[in-house]
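Please decode residue identities from the backbone states below.
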């Protein structure tokens, strides 16, 4: 696993355009399609993405997970039947860049959780991943960059 140094960032809340879905752990390959759906909805609304696409894990249980998948946008997003406006939270975040294939990202999450515990930082909400590399443009999974964000308390 290749993980950058974990750093603390202070971020303002970010408006988003998202789809929300419940899926099993075996359905995560649907995420790229939802990124495309939200991108098209943003353009139809006359907006542009204001950052990289992301997936935010709202909850996880034995049956699967609840996700928000989409893009940051520069202004509140009105939405439609499938794509809704949302917000990524502001405040302190523990952030690290993971380099590698998506199926190997689990240990990076554990490393960030362990870092938070070691540094007295309480996790304060659902984490999310921001995708900096398009696998259609970079075929080498070792070069794929995914930033992992954990909201934390001061």
């Amino acid at each position: 696993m290749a993980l950058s140094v974990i750093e603390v960032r202070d971020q303002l809340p970010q408006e988003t355009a998202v789809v929300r879905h419940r899926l099993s752990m075996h359905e995560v390959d649907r995420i790229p399609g939802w990124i495309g759906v939200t991108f098209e909805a943003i353009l139809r609304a006359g907006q542009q993405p204001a950052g990289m696409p992301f997936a935010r894990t709202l909850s996880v249980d034995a049956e699967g997970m609840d996700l928000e998948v989409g893009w940051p946008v520069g202004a509140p997003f009105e939405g439609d039947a499938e794509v809704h406006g949302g917000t990524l939270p502001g405040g302190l975040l523990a952030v690290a860049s993971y380099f590698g294939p998506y199926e190997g990202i689990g240990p990076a999450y554990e490393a960030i959780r362990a870092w938070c515990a070691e540094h007295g930082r309480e996790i304060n909400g659902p984490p999310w991943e921001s995708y900096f590399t398009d696998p259609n443009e970079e075929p080498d999974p070792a070069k794929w960059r995914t930033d992992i964000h954990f909201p934390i308390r001061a």
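Observation: Residues 32 and 136 are 11 Å apart (CA to CA).
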